[in-house]
Q: What sequence folds into this?
């Protein structure tokens, strides 16, 4: 399963932002060259944008309203979600980089030199007992999907969900009515086990038993320490991630939620979409402007990028209400909770 080098989770030992790779930057719809050409052209225009619109008989419509009207009226037919830890914090699972996030907790507990070191494959080889201890206390099944997860399931039920790329390994996306083949767990999952050294799959039941006892499960082939198939820094992403990149070219709405967009190659996904695709970013703080790179054109009235600074569940509540879907959505949540425990 060897892939291109740039396909690894980009190790950022200092926990610093990782810039999307250059090739993808060149596909960026906010290409610098295009920007400067537009700047030059707009210098030739003496009227401001609103005046021009008035001349054409157009009135300026709020971008959020346009988004809602298109969603409500079924104009978005193929929707992608690109999600991170912030979609599960309301379930009680901490994210990584918030002030009381996992990175800080683990760095302090294990006295690590950098925030992301705990999830580095070399740390795992040196001290597999750290990760075993962490996993022993982690009962992912005790967490419940959030309204945001159910919203994705709701859109699937409406026949609108094309694909979900998630960085989360909590499996909550699979418990809200989205079929497995539409979920790309970019950073792996806790359902399967493997040996990261020789890449052999191992029996997850046995691995689980070892984790519960705090005993390192040694690979039957190479004696290396085994772990669930979650992707550590320095490891390759699953093939499914690469195989599904092309699906993003074919979506008309991408909803990015609960991710700092600091980790590559996942943070390049928003640039895989077609330039006419709407990109809605929902996050409790502004994200998506790495290195002042201005990845999203939130402030440009003519762009189809929109930032909702909001908690994920609050944003869902608002969107569902504004679309007039409240009753159907609540019914969907209740039924799904009953059928998928
Ligand atoms: P981060 O912790 O980096 O970012 C989570 C983002 O969600 C932050 O911008 C928070 O402000 C925001 N957030 C938190 N709670 C929220 C809520 N209820 N509603 C809306 N926004 C909220 O997590 P990720 O971006 O998912 O990888 O992290 C990416 C990767 O870094 C992880 O998959 C993991 C980590 O290293 C590996 O370990 C390989
Ligand atoms: Zn092995």
A:
């Amino acid at each position: 399963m060897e892939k291109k080098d740039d396909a690894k989770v980009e190790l950022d030992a200092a926990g610093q932002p990782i810039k999307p790779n250059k090739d993808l930057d060149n596909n960026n719809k906010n290409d610098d060259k295009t920007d400067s050409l537009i700047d030059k052209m707009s210098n030739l225009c003496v009227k401001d944008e609103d005046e021009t619109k008035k001349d054409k008989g157009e009135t300026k419509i709020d971008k959020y309203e346009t988004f809602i009207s298109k969603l409500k009226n079924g104009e978005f037919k193929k929707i992608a979600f690109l999600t991170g830890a912030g979609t599960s914090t309301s379930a009680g699972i901490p994210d990584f980089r918030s002030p009381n996030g996992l990175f800080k907790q683990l760095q302090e507990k294990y006295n690590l030199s950098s925030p992301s070191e705990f999830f580095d494959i070399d740390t795992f080889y040196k001290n597999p007992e750290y990760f075993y201890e962490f996993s022993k206390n982690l009962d992912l099944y005790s967490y419940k999907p959030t309204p945001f997860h159910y919203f994705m399931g709701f859109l699937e039920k409406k026949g609108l969900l094309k694909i979900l790329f998630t960085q989360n390994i909590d499996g909550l996306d699979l418990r809200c009515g989205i079929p497995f083949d539409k979920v790309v767990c970019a950073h792996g999952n806790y359902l399967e086990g493997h040996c990261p050294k020789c890449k052999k799959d191992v029996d997850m039941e046995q691995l689980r038993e070892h984790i519960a006892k705090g005993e390192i499960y040694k690979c039957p082939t190479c004696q290396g320490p085994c772990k669930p198939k979650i992707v550590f820094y320095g490891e390759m992403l699953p093939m499914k991630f690469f195989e599904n990149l092309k699906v993003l070219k074919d979506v008309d709405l991408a909803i990015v939620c609960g991710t700092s967009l600091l980790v590559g190659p996942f943070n390049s996904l928003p640039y895989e979409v077609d330039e006419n695709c709407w990109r809605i970013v929902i996050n409790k703080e502004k994200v998506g402007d790495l290195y002042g790179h201005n990845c999203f054109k939130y402030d440009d009235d003519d762009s189809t990028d929109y930032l909702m600074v909001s908690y994920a569940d609050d944003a869902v509540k608002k969107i569902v209400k504004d679309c007039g879907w409240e009753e159907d959505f609540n019914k969907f949540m209740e039924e799904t909770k009953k059928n998928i425990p």
In short: Residues 1-7, 11-58 have pLDDT under 50 and may be disordered.
